[in-house]
């Protein structure tokens, strides 16, 4: 199997407070800790694809999954960007170091996160918790009805994503 057989969907029709409340208590603490430490999340453009790819490559090496070339992700960006259907979010430490990234694609009322990762410093700072929360929050603010966490490839990933609420779908 190339693609995971299940995903996790979050219904974004609830208000932001309810979505925040659906996060596990520890996940909210981690997101708040990252924010307090000065982690920021930016909506980046094509200029950040190399940054995204470096983070994604480090994640793939650490987690042991295969990825495509940087050009392939640039092509995804170029295919969806003219229609305003792709976003690249980058989390940075207080000093500006990029430590986590997500590429989001919109399809109708659904926002999907097919690609993302974090560096070791991103894990230590819990930046990825804040990044994922901001992706969910901002997708709702942009009018999306569903956020698709895209794949529960292994028990560790499934556990992490379950902490953001939603329901598992096969």
Task: Describe the model.
The protein is α+β, with helices and mostly antiparallel strands. The protein is built from 7 helices and 7 strands, in the order βααβααβββααβαβ. The chain has helices spanning 16-22, 25-36, 49-63, 70-80, 120-125, 127-141, 155-162, and strands spanning 7-11, 40-44, 86-92, 98-107, 110-118, 146-148, 167-169. A 7-stranded mixed β-sheet has the order 2-3-4-5-6-1-7, with helices on both faces. Helix 2 packs across helix 6. The radius of gyration is 15 Å and the shape is globular. The two termini are 14 Å apart. 38% of the residues are buried.
Concise structural overview:
Helices cover 44% and strands 25% of the residues. With 170 residues, it is α+β, with helices and mostly antiparallel strands.
Number of E strands: 7
Low-confidence stretches: none
Which structural class is indicated by helix and strand composition? alpha+beta
Distance between the termini: 14 Å
Rough outline: globular
**How many H/I helical runs?**
7
Order of helices and strands: EHHEHHEEEHHEHE
Spatial order of the strands forming the largest sheet: 2-3-4-5-6-1-7
How would you sum up the major sheet?
7 strands, mixed
Work out the helicity level: 40-55%
The percentage of residues in β strands lies in 15-25%
- Rg (C-alpha, Å): 15 Å
Average predicted local confidence, pLDDT: 95
């Amino acid at each position: 199997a190339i693609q995971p057989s299940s995903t996790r969907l979050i219904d974004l029709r609830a208000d932001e407070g309810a979505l925040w409340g659906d996060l596990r208590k520890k996940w909210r603490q981690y997101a708040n800790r990252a924010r307090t430490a000065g982690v920021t999340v930016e909506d980046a453009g094509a200029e950040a694809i190399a940054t995204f790819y470096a983070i994604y490559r480090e994640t793939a090496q650490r987690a042991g999954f295969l990825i495509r070339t940087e050009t392939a992700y640039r092509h995804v960006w170029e295919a969806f960007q003219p229609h305003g259907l792709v976003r690249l979010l980058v989390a940075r430490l207080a000093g500006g170091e990029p430590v986590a990234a997500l590429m989001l694609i919109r399809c109708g009322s659904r926002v999907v996160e097919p690609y993302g990762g974090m560096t070791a410093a991103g894990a230590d700072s819990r930046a990825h918790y804040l990044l994922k929360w901001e992706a969910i929050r901002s997708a709702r603010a942009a009018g999306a009805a569903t956020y698709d966490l895209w794949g529960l490839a292994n028990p560790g990933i499934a556990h992490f994503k379950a902490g953001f609420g939603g329901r598992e779908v096969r």
